[in-house]
Amino acid sequence: MKKNKGFTLIELLAVIVILGIMLAISVVAVNKIRKNQEVENKRNVISSILTGAKRYFADEPSKSEVRVKYLVEKDYADFDISEYDEFDNDSIKVFYNNECPNDSNKLKRAFYVSVNGKTYNDCGCAIQTGGVTGKKLCSGQNGTDEANIN
Predict the structure, then answer these.
(1) How much is the pTM?
(2) Are 111 and 124 in contact (CB under 8 A)?
(3) pLDDT in tens, 4-63
(4) What angle is formed at CA 93 by the lines to CA 87 and CA 94, rounded to 5 degrees?
């Protein structure tokens, strides 16, 4: 009786199926990690813009707006603008606004930037009578909602 060596077709198919499942799981995981990193990078860029705006408006207290491109060119904001097409546009500006439009508490929101229809601001700049409140990047009309960056 002759004994055959090697794998059967069923065994090979089982290994291929298992490898395919493992590959699919890893691709999904890597895509999720990459998306989270992109969101975090954008959050950091917006924070850099708002921090640069604070410095700019401290130097230029009579101004009420500044182009994001100018903040980067003059080293107020530190990020590579060429990597973020949405900010490499003369119409994207940071504004200084004393009062939040729809806020019953009359919080003061010092700096905000509008990008693609979304408004972001630094809640740390929301000044109430007692001083500075909040510490996170926010969005929305009154600066109380955590920023949802896509």
Answers:
(1) 0.63
(2) no
(3) 788 899 999 999 999 999 999 999 999 999 999 988 888 888 888 888 888 888 888 788
(4) 115
**3-state SS string for the chain:** CCCCCCCCHHHHHHHHHHHHHHHHHHHHHHHHHHHHHHHHHHHHHHHHHHHHHHHHHHHCCCCCEEEHHHHHHCCCCCCCHHHCCCCCCCCCEEEECCCCCCCCCCCEECEEEEECCEEEEEHHHEEECCEEECCCEEECCCCCEECCCC
Contacts by 1-10, CB closer than 8 A, 24 or more apart: none
Q: How many CB atoms lie within 10 A of CB 1?
A: 2
Contact 96, 123 (CB under 8 A): no
* 150 class by beta-carbon count within 10 Å (0-12 exposed, 13-18 middle, 19+ buried): exposed
**Closest alpha carbon to 65 in 46, 100, 103, 92:** 92
pLDDT of 90-142, one tens digit each? 778 887 765 554 455 555 555 677 776 677 776 543 333 333 344 455 555 44
